[in-house]
Amino acid sequence: MKEKAKQFKNQVQTFWTESSTLRKSAVISVVLLLLLAIALAAALLFRTNYAPLYSQLTLAEAGQIQEALEQRGVAARVSNDGTTIHVPEADVDRLKVDLAAEGLPKSGSIDYAFFQNQMGFGMTDNEFTVIERSLMQTELAELIRGVQGVEQANVIITLPEESVWLNSGQESSTAAVVLQLEPGYTLDSSQVKALYHLISKSVPNLPIENIVLSDSQFNNYTYQEEETSPAASFQSQREIKQEIESDLKQTINQLLSAVVGPENAIVSVTADIDFTQEQRTEDLVEPVDEEEVSGLAISVERINEMYEGTTGNEEGVAGVGDEIPNYTGAAGGGDSESERTEERINYEVNRIHKEIIESPYEIRDLGIQVMVNPPEGMQALPPQQTADITAMLETIIRTTLPDDGEEEGEQDVGDRVVVTSMPFAQTETGEAEQPSSATIPIWIYAVAAGLVLLIIILAVLLYRKREPADLAEEQDEAAEPEPEQEDEPLMETEETEESKQMRQLNRLAKEQPEDFSKLLRTWLSDE
């Protein structure tokens, strides 16, 4: 063992003596870099990671917490002008529970930002969702606190679960925000509207109607639309059109996924919407009895008069009749009879007063285009299946379009439906996973790559250092026959021969360096 160590020492000394200045510098640099990398890795592995325990504390509360930590012997750091306290990461959860039992802190918020540096490949989807929502709530609250007049903000966000199925509808997020305003400050309508837009655009798939905004005094702030301008009206009409097309597309996708399978159909819906608004007033009079076309009799008055009697002699003025010549005298008296019937009926009819405001929009026309991926090994769907899909789409059009009293022919409805069948372009197997924020920091990869590179360089240099001596030994051993001796003397002879060969090589390198270099080149060329 001692001879082996001595031999290795001699080899190292020989290599160092024969090495050039450039090679010596390279070896020293590699060794120093390797030691530096090892020291850096050890420092990173054994250092104490600090994480925020509480943030946005008052100075009094920060002092109380600092005193409580010192009593427990916990090393703590203070930052952000004394409002944030950092403790060793391993003690964060335990200290939160212990301090909460003592009623500390009385204010401040737990900082979730340290989770960003702790997310790794072993994190589950549920853990990532919880952390993502917590970070979103914290960042949104910080953003709202920057609004004039807002001292504090508490945000609760509910995110819908994403579904991988084609026939599942997309749900909306919800948000509840409670503001703590400065004393005597009141938000105006422009600030309320800005807050609604800020919250809506900060959370994915969060419509304004799903936001509840109030202050600590339980005053609700509602979103009020401004007077409609032409641009706003156009945007509203465009959103209505897109929503109608999206709903119809989703319904058709649900039906087609059950027939041809999910992700085997592409649907396009084009809707023609009439946004003409009409407001009118109607006063109608309709009969109560539509068959008789008559009203309802509310009062009836009938009068019947009959007269019977005798008519008396006519009497003239004295002295007149006889004085007129050729005047015929009246006849004598007789019987007379008369009858009068009178009927009065008052009818009441249906009087209808209508104030009609038409719907703000109406689907005037509809077009559906469907492209279906046929089963494997086929270039198109069977004609019967294509006809069934077409009939289904025509039924959807009939039930969606308004009934204007005119029956549309099969040709008219069929012109609105186009069903195409052709194989879809094949995509690469498996979709590339989206980069997740739960990744290892880049500097760890850089340090690991540097360590691997240093180890490879050191191994190559050591291999080249030992190669000339090993080749010389092998050549000398092949040239000289081994003497036949007993086992123990043989070991001594081999060690003596190796020592002689080393001395010869050293002498050759010192006295005849040119011959020694030629010998090395010969060995290298043979290799």
Automatic annotation (TrEMBL):
Pfam families: YscJ_FliF (PF01514), YscJ_FliF_C (PF08345)
Keyword vocabulary terms for this entry: Bacterial flagellum, Cell membrane, Cell projection, Cilium, Flagellum, Membrane, Transmembrane, Transmembrane helix
Membrane topology: Multi-pass membrane protein
Keyword Transmembrane: yes
Main localization (coarse): other
Keyword Transmembrane: yes
GO molecular function: cytoskeletal motor activity
NCBIfam families given in the database record: fliF
UniProt similarity note: Belongs to the FliF family.
Protein name in the entry: Flagellar M-ring protein
